[in-house]
Design goal:
Number of helices of chain A: 7
Oligomer: heterodimer
Number of strands of chain B: 0
Radius of gyration of chain B: 21 Å
Order of helices and strands of chain B: HHHH
Largest sheet of chain A: 2 strands, antiparallel
Helix content of chain B: over 70%
Shape of chain B: rod-shaped
Strand content of chain B: under 5%
Number of domains of chain A: 1
Number of strands of chain A: 2
Chain lengths: 233, 93
C-alpha cells in the first residue's frame, strides 16, 4: 500500500531516482505549457474565436475576478503566480481520470514546494507594494510584543497549506486504493468522482488562501479618518 | 509483552482513536458553519457570491484539522518509525 507517487520508481541511477512525482509533474508542465502555446498561437480579438480560446478566456477572467474580490486592486500583477498555482493543482487533480496516473500533489514534497513558493511570494509582493521598511514594520503591528506571534503564524500558515493539500490528495488516492481491493466496480468510481470534487475545491482553496495572505502582506496602511468624518448628523 | 507487541498494539489503538475523535469536532463545526451560511443566504440572497466563497474557505480551514488527524493516523499505520526501527532490530538479530 503505497502512500505517495514517490514510491513508484520508474528508473534509477545511483542516487537519482526518477519517481512518479517527478515524471507526472513534468508531464503536467508539458500539457499546460504546450496546450497554452498551441491555443494562443492565433489569438483573435473579434467576435469569432475558437472554443479553446474561449475556454482560456473564461478561466483567466474568472481567476482575475476572484483575485480582485479578495482585495488586491491590480489583479494583473498577481495573475501569473496565483493563476499558475490554481491551474497546476486543478489539472493535477483532474488528470486522475487517466488510468495509471497519480496526482503529484499526493506527495508531501510537491505540496511543501508549493507552500514554500507562497511563503516566498508574500514578502516579495509585500515589499514590491510597500517598500522594505513599511513591510517589516507590519510584523510589529499592533504592538512589538506581537512580533514572535506574527512570525510563528507565517510559518504555521505555510505548514498548514502544505499538509492540507497533501492530506486531501493522499486520502483520495488511498480511499480508492482500499476500495479497489474490496468492491471493484461501483464504489471506486463514486469515490473517484468525490476525489475530483475535493481536488477542485482544494485547488481553489490553495490559491484563494495564497491571495488572502498576499493581500494581507501587501495592504497599504490607509490613513486613519479625521475627527470630522465620525461626527454624527 | 516485549517491545514489538507493545509498539504494535499502541500504534493500532491510537490510530483508531485519533481518527475517530479527530473527526467529531470538525464535523460539528462544519455543520454549524453551513447552517449559519444558509441563514444569512436566506436573509441576503444578493450577497450569495461572497457568502459562498467565505463559506468554502472557512470549511477548508475547519477540514484541515480533520486532515491533520487523518495524516497522523496514516503515519501510525503505514510509515511508523518506531515499528520500522524495532523490525530492523529484530531482523538484524
Amino acid at each position: 500500500m503505497h502512500l505517495s507517487p514517490d514510491q513508484m520508481i520508474f528508473w534509477q541511477h545511483g542516487f537519482f531516482k526518477l519517481n512518479g512525482t517527478i515524471a507526472f509533474t513534468w508531464g503536467l508542465m508539458l500539457v499546460l505549457a504546450g496546450g497554452s502555446k498551441l491555443i494562443t498561437r492565433n489569438l483573435s480579438t473579434g467576435l469569432e474565436r475558437s472554443r479553446w480560446q474561449n475556454l482560456l478566456e473564461i478561466v483567466v477572467t474568472g481567476i482575475e475576478k476572484q483575485i480582485e474580490e479578495v482585495g488586491l486592486s491590480e489583479p494583473q500583477k498577481y495573475l501569473g503566480f496565483l493563476g499558475t498555482l490554481f491551474l497546476f493543482i486543478a489539472t493535477a487533480s483532474l488528470c486522475t481520470v487517466i488510468p495509471g496516473y497519480e496526482p503529484p500533489t499526493g506527495s508531501l514534497s510537491t505540496t511543501a514546494a508549493l507552500a514554500l513558493s507562497v511563503f516566498v511570494a508574500v514578502p516579495f509582493f509585500g515589499i514590491e507594494e510597500q517598500g522594505v521598511g513599511e513591510y517589516l514594520r507590519s510584523y510589529a503591528q499592533p504592538t512589538v510584543l506581537m512580533l514572535p506571534f506574527n512570525i510563528i503564524s507565517e510559518l504555521s500558515r505555510t505548514l498548514a497549506l502544505a499538509v492540507r493539500l497533501f492530506g486531501n490528495m493522499m486520502s483520495g488516492v488511498m480511499i480508492i486504493g482500499i476500495l479497489l481491493t474490496i468492491t471493484p466496480f461501483l464504489f471506486p468510481i463514486v469515490m473517484t468522482l468525490l476525489g475530483l470534487l475535493t481536488g477542485m475545491v482544494q485547488a481553489y482553496i490553495f490559491s484563494i488562501l495564497g491571495a488572502v495572505y498576499i493581500a494581507a502582506g501587501a495592504r497599504v496602511r490607509k490613513p486613519k479618518p479625521g475627527p470630522m468624518q465620525t461626527v454624527p448628523a | 509483552m516485549d517491545s514489538l507487541t507493545i509498539i504494535a498494539v499502541a500504534s493500532i489503538v491510537i490510530a483508531g482513536i485519533t481518527i475517530s475523535l479527530g473527526a467529531i469536532g470538525p464535523a460539528l463545526a462544519e455543520g454549524r458553519a453551513v447552517a449559519t451560511a444558509l441563514t444569512s443566504l436566506a436573509q441576503q440572497p444578493d450577497a450569495s457570491a461572497t457568502i459562498t466563497r467565505t463559506l468554502f474557505v472557512g470549511l477548508a480551514m475547519i477540514e484541515s484539522i480533520a486532515i491533520y488527524c487523518f495524516v497522523v493516523s496514516m503515519i501510525l499505520i503505514f510509515a511508523n518509525p518506531f515499528w520500522n526501527h524495532v523490525i530492523a532490530q529484530t531482523a538484524g538479530k
